[in-house]
Amino acid sequence: MDASKLALPVGTTLDRFIMRKQEDFPYATGELSQLLRDIALAAKIVNREINRSGLIDIAGAYGNQNVQGEEQQKLDVVANIRFIRALRNGGEACTIISEEDDEAIDTGNVQGKYIVAIDPLDGSSNIDVNVSIGTIFSVYRRVSPTGQPGTAADCLQPGTHQVAAGYVIYGSSTMLVYTTGNGVNGFTYEPSLGEFFLSHPDIQTPRTGTIYSINEGSSNSFSPGVAAFVRHCQDAQFSARYIGSLVADFHRNLLKGGIYLYPATAKNPAGKLRLMYECNPLAFIVEQAGGRSSNGYARTLELEPAACHQRCPFFIGSPELVALAERFLAQETVPAGV
Ligand SMILES: O=P(O)(O)OC[C@H]1O[C@](O)(COP(=O)(O)O)[C@@H](O)[C@@H]1O
Ligand SMILES: [Mg+2]
Ligand SMILES: [Mg+2]
């Protein structure tokens, strides 16, 4: 009997993978690696709270509205506290842009070189009904000198300046998927060992697919181009899949091929999703996996942010499907201001 068969390797931990990747960058100083570890630690704690959210008094509304005018759920607030605390204690982030905070947060880490934009809990409408939810994060290097708090210029950088981006999906299993601009890798959480293990190396998204994800409840106010594209998907007998948690819809389509669309609608004339901590990080990931992302006209990563919580229309997924949707929109007259 080959003894090694008795103790099969458990795999590559996230920590070890981060360290190995750091070696790819001769001038790396370990700060970005530490920041990614800080995010992973907070994700483990939030995962524990999500898994037992039905048992502890963590369900339901918190009783406040965030800057978006959305009712904050208790888990939105808990996740926000956990990630901010981990990033503040970790010392690498000087400023945090969070969906749940009106203003950018000065962490006090004046030597910190990084800005983190974060959606602490994505898919809030699905929190209390045991449907997959997530966390989305984006990392930029500051442009202002260290030794002082981060500035507005540090916060409002286009997506092309991201040095890392990722998401955590709290689903049937918990996964962390991230990129530092060197491919996309996915790690599955093993709760009994408290470790993320490499489970999805070098993710590549299929060039096309037969899944489309859009809230058809808003179809009355879809632009003619969006309506025509949705009809095309229906005529082609694509599968309509819409969980209502961006992270979960994006993750499925990333692995299987497909397109997620959140266009401008009467209810959300500028789109619903936020450029800095929802669209840019997922656009960085999808492009690193061979996919495509735009606002229907311009590449998401090249959009110039004017405000931390600005929204934008979002088309993301398999490159051929997103390009096709853009062609349908191009046949429309371009609405003013897009
Ligand atoms: O209910 P709608 O309008 O379809 O919107 C669903 C979308 O809104 C979101 O819930 C917005 O994110 P938050 O939950 O972080 O606010 C996305 O996850 C999801 O894709
Ligand atoms: Mg969100
Ligand atoms: Mg959120």
TrEMBL record:
Name by which UniProt lists this protein: Fructose-1,6-bisphosphatase class 1
GO CC aspect terms: cytosol
Location(s) in or outside the cell: Cytoplasm
Family label: Belongs to the FBPase class 1 family.
Gene (UniProt): fbp
Amino acids binding Mg(2+) 1: 99, 119, 121
InterPro entries: FBPase_C_dom (IPR044015), FBPase_class-1 (IPR000146), FBPase_N (IPR033391), FBPtase (IPR028343)
Superkingdom, taxonomy of origin: Bacteria
SUPFAM superfamilies documented for this protein: Carbohydrate phosphatase
Cofactor note: Binds 2 magnesium ions per subunit.
Keywords from the named record: Carbohydrate metabolism, Cytoplasm, Hydrolase, Magnesium, Metal-binding
Pathway annotation: Carbohydrate biosynthesis
CDD domains linked: FBPase
PANTHER family: FRUCTOSE-1,6-BISPHOSPHATASE-RELATED, SEDOHEPTULOSE-1,7-BISPHOSPHATASE, CHLOROPLASTIC
Enzyme Commission designation: 3.1.3.11
Positions of the Fructose-1-6-bisphosphatase class I N-terminal domain: 13-201
Predominant localisation class: cytoplasm
Binding of Mg(2+) 2, residues: 119, 122, 278
Cofactor(s), names only, from the UniProt record: Mg(2+)
Residue ranges annotated for the Fructose-1-6-bisphosphatase class 1 C-terminal domain, each copy included: 206-328
Swiss-Prot/TrEMBL catalytic activity: beta-D-fructose 1,6-bisphosphate + H2O = beta-D-fructose 6-phosphate + phosphate
Keyword Hydrolase listed: yes
SUBUNIT field: Homotetramer.
